[in-house]
Amino acid sequence: MSELRETRLEKANALKEQGQEPYALRFDLTDRMARLQADHADLANGTERDLKVSVAGRVMTRRVMGKLAFFTLADETGTIQLFLEKATLGESFAQLSSLVDAGDLIGVHGILRRTDRGELSVKVSEWQMLTKSLQPLPDKWHGLADVEKRYRQRYLDLIVTPQSRETFRRRAMAVSAIRRWLDDRDFLEIETPVLQSEAGGAEARPFITHHNTLDLPLYLRIATELHLKRLVVGGFERVYELGRIFRNEGVSTRHNPEFTSVEVYQAYADYNDMMTLTEQLIASVCEQVCGTTRISYQGVDVDLTPSWRRATMHELVQEATGLDFGSFQTREAAVEAMRAANLPTPDKADTVGRLLNEAFEHAVEPNLIQPTFVLDYPQEISPLARKHRSKPGLVERFELFIVGRETANAFSELTDPLDQRSRMELQQERRAAGDVEASGVDEDFIQALEVGMPPTGGLGIGIDRLVMLLTDSPSIRDVIAFPLMRPEG
RNA sequence: GGGUCGCUAGCUCAGCGGUAGAGCACUCGGCUUUUAACCGAUUGGUCCUGAGUUCGAAUCUCAGGCGACCCA
């Protein structure tokens, strides 16, 4: 209600009349809360330490009792109690107790004192309004229980939910740990276009936009793959890009239309090398962010200590269903066996390989809790991966699954330009037939391959899903500061 | 796309056919060791929107909006 706001505006005006700017320019602070708490843990109850400190932050709670008051002041690192007494503050005590609300940002000068009840406090001798807040804070006890509000008004969530702050702190740590790990191994981060005239590198619907001056339809990238490979053709032997990807798809606890990936390409390597790289990289990031590689996700223990299980898609499906997809000569044979095993056989899965993938997604994927590399995918669902060196119909590809979720995807990259062209033409046929996720032929990319790409291992990791794992977050929206929301009605 | 659940005061929630409620927050008064401070008083409402049933709807029905979760 705007009555609260009116009251606070009046307080802001009252401050002005008393010569206090309600929106201050700056404040010289000497200390931050967490450090003060740590450095003065030895201060005895009921005693003072004659050390002048200046701190600033947001007033979280107020407890006023006549001529004495206690505020809790929070900065980014933590909280400290303010010990406010009329005897010390004189006239400005009345101002404090009547014009400062929970939610205001203030700066104070004072000395340290631990109260009789053992709370380290700043005994304030001087205070200054830094920013007057016009909106009330959420319930101090329950916090922001409304999930929708947490996403729509993330700033409130961050103010009152310490766990939310910790999640984004960890996300930042994870992202910088990934960059550091790759930089240390001579991988070069190169930025590739977000706006593309052909959206390729994955099977997904793109967002469409338009360039006015060139009168050109453009797509937001659905992957960084094809441009990073062009860089490998150009002679950069170790490249990566960590950045935003856009896919015009639904929203769920595991999907946001814009998300972050890191794609890594290493010349003269294959998918076996990328497996080692993946487990080393993720284990290292986990160690740095969580302090251990044995973590707990939503009550389930997950052990990310290398090395991880490696099994082929065929083996895993057979293990879970008893079906040997290597023995099916025709789609009909596979359909018959799958029906007998109560597995769905959608029409769009029009080959044995696609049916294998269906069986995998249904019977295996949700049960891959511990990190597992799934190897050797059907060629028809992997148009950018090279043919397997010894298994006909399959490609050298792995996906990494953790807690039932696809977390990484990697290939021995397809370097044969003629093979790549025929794969892309197949995609184009599917698109012509109505598959909105199929891409077309990227002529410029084919031309790059014709110039010659060295044998290369490529890898993509979904940063958001990795961060979910490292922060024990149940929804992707918990790890994206401002997730996509439908506008409020 | 389908299903289940939710939407009531700034926040957290109760009420489930008969006058719109509580705690916290706000405002006022009291209080020099509180930390969900306490005590007293007051203030605060498009019960998500619209239509219907009914003497009477926050409550029942239908449609719509937004969200959460599950399934595809």
Descriptive terms for the model:
489 residues, alpha+beta, OB fold (Dihydrolipoamide Acetyltransferase, E2P), BirA Bifunctional Protein, domain 2, 2 domains, eight-stranded mixed beta sheet, five-stranded mixed beta barrel, 15 helices, RNA-binding
Total domain count: 2
For this structure, the CATH topology of the largest domain is BirA Bifunctional Protein, domain 2
Q: Would you state the CATH class of the largest domain?
A: Alpha Beta
Total count of strands: 18
Helix/strand-derived category reads: alpha+beta
Tell me the distance between the termini: 19 Å
Describe this structure in words.
The protein is of the alpha+beta class. The chain folds into two domains: 2-137, OB fold (Dihydrolipoamide Acetyltransferase, E2P) (Beta Barrel), CATH 2.40.50; 160-308 and 370-478, BirA Bifunctional Protein, domain 2, CATH 3.30.930.10. The protein has helices at residues 2-17, 33-39, 86-89, 92-99, 147-152, 154-160, 162-184, 225-233, 271-290, 313-321, 331-340, 352-363, 417-432, 443-451, 463-471, and strands spanning 48-65, 68-75, 78-85, 105-114, 120-131, 188-189, 195-196, 208-211, 216-220, 238-246, 258-267, 294-297, 300-303, 309-312, 372-378, 394-402, 405-412, 456-462. Strands 6-10-11-18-17-16-15-14 form an eight-stranded mixed beta sheet, sandwiched between helices. A five-stranded mixed barrel has the order 1-2-3-5-4. A three-stranded antiparallel beta sheet has the order 7-9-8, with no helix packed on it. A hairpin with a 5-residue loop joins strand 4 and strand 5. It binds one RNA strand of 72 nucleotides through residues 1, 3-5, 7-8, 46, 61, 63-70, 72, 81, 83, 85-87, 101-102, 115-117, 119, 135-149, 151, 250, 253, 344, 475, 485-489.
